[in-house]
Amino acid sequence: MNDAKPASKEPRGIQSIEVGGQLLLALAHHGRPMALKDLAREAGMTPAKAHPYLVSFIKLGLVEQDGGSGPYGLGPLALQLGLISLQQYDPVRLATPVIEELALRLGHTVAIAVWGTRGPTIVRVAEGPTPVHVSMRHGTVMSLAGTASGRLFAAYRAGEAAALGEPLPDAATTAAVAGAGLAISRDGVVPGVSAAAAPVFEASGRLVLALTAIGPSASFDTAADGLPARALREAAGLLSRRLGH
Prior knowledge:
Strand content: 15-25%
Number of strands: 7
Radius of gyration: 23 Å
Strand order of the largest sheet: 4-3-7-6-5
Number of helices: 9
Helix content: 40-55%
Low-confidence stretches: none
């Protein structure tokens, strides 16, 4: 008697849609109109195979062609779908599972900070698996000058930061943060505690939240190419792209 269970199968899709979708993915990836031969090559097909798909996509409004014979770009329906998708995205909701993964990967506490009425404010916290934690409570307002999160917001939302009337980072620190796309705090507000923060941007280019890792200075790598910095930048970049940046 064979008790083996049948192998689970993925839901069946329509292959032609998946094949044609590679053309849309190529256009979205490059972010600019493309000639037929270049677009077909990026999608892994011949121009002759790509052309009928593009004709159908044009009829639907997913693709448009410049002048009827020029390069192909994303059409009005694709843009409308993108805008609707962005409206459905909640940045904090998207980032919450990301900080859980980062906390496990880094072994440090990772938090989400957003801009509140009093400045950068912690709204989500994920603790790492190590026995030593640096506590950050929900609702904690971070110093603009002394914390990684604060320095990040001071660099990317300078007008709002200045309006608070709180001490700001010096010009050199702000320029370094903006240039690196990363803020570092070594033994800042709390001696023996260090942190790194990376920016997440929305479609308009505005900073919407910071991903911040924090831990004991003795075990926290604050190097610009260290694991926390690399992991935070990577995660922040992926979230920014999901938000249309």
